[in-house]
Amino acid sequence: MSGHHTSDAPLLDVRNLTTEYRSARGTRVVRAVDGVSFSLDAGETLGIVGESGSGKSTLALTILRLLPPGAVIAGGEVRFEGDDLLTKSDGEMRRVRGRRIAMILQDPMASLNPLFTVGDQVAEPIRVHEGASRASAWSKARDLLRSVRIAAPEQRVGEYPHQLSGGMRQRIVGAIAISCEPRLLIADEPTTSLDVTIQAQYLRLLRDLQQAHGLALIFITHNLGIVAKMCDRVAVMYAGRLVESGPVRDIFRSAAHPYTRALLASIPRLSDQRERLQAVDGQTPDLAALPAGCAFHPRCPEALDRCHVEDPPDVAVAPRHASRCWLSLEPGHVRRNGA
After folding, report:
1. Taking 90 as the threshold, does the pLDDT of residue 269 lie above it?
2. Within 10 Å of residue 273's Cβ, how many Cβ atoms?
3. Residue 80: CB partners within 8 Å, gap ≥ 6?
4. Which of 30, 187, 244, 332 is the most exposed place for a label (fewest CB within 10 A)?
């Protein structure tokens, strides 16, 4: 652990992070993460929400430095326990990944190797990061399967991923993620492939694991209903930028950005039998050809003239609650439009 991380400093502090996808000749540049800043305290849960293509997954992969070919971190800092991860060597990053920061991906089969048993895959990070013997790593693997509520772990360790249900595979991935007791867990849409009942069980499991291990959690999702259940704070992404961030209660009660309000209005509610489900009008923009001014203005029912030409600043609308919107500078706007 870093010697200069103090208890009052955030566990993770991301400053002005920018990631670009560049074509082979460098002629086409797409900015998938554009000047993103946020922080996360130990044990806290941050939800990152937005439609597909908003930059959520690229942001997570940038933090872990697991970007695909053609993607380049163009600027910024990712301070974790006081260290800037962007200045670390590849070897140093391999020691951080899995041990201090772990990730659960959307599709468990992308994380699991079909050729190895469940036991080998859960035990591997324990052997790599902690130098444990095969016997003790397998023993810990059985305990981990028990902790993620897999029945008959003694039998399951000898099975292969294809022999298990989707819900069980996602639990195994969770067991691998917590195997070295990381400080931070990034979960990227981990419940998308699960049916609703299994999804609820999995979310409860994640929350229990978080409390038991004191984990900080970044939960990436397009589902604001999950954010309401799971998260302390929420950051809303649009076209690679954070357009609103704040405590979950504040955002659900009085969202300041029209995009956040549109996302909230599209959550199905059991009480609304009469009303049609609202969708966010229009299409997400092409990141290679963003409009001038605010990227959301072509879809915004409240756009002002200046939204078409001037990029809005980050405006503090309440303590720890910020919105990147010209309307947030209008007096009384948040209260008038409080959701």
Report:
1. no
2. 6
3. 11, 12, 13, 63, 96, 100, 101, 184
4. 332
* Lookup: tokens for 61: 């992969």
Region at 233 (left for phi over 0; alpha for psi -120 to 50; beta for the rest):
beta
pLDDT, tens digit, 9 for 90 and up, residues 297-329: 999 999 999 999 999 999 999 999 999 999 988
Mapped onto helix, strand or coil, the DSSP state of residue 39 is: strand
pTM of the model: 0.89
The phi-psi region of residue 309 (left if phi > 0; otherwise alpha if psi is between -120 and 50; otherwise beta) is alpha
Segment 249-274 mean pLDDT: 84
Q: Is 181 left (phi over 0), alpha (psi -120 to 50) or beta?
A: left
Question: Does residue 78 surpass a pLDDT of 70?
Answer: yes
What is the phi/psi pair of residue 328, to 5°?
-70, -15
Radius of gyration of the chain (CA): 21
Q: Which amino acid appears at position 258 of this protein?
A: P
**Rounded distance, CA 7 to CA 25, Å?**
45
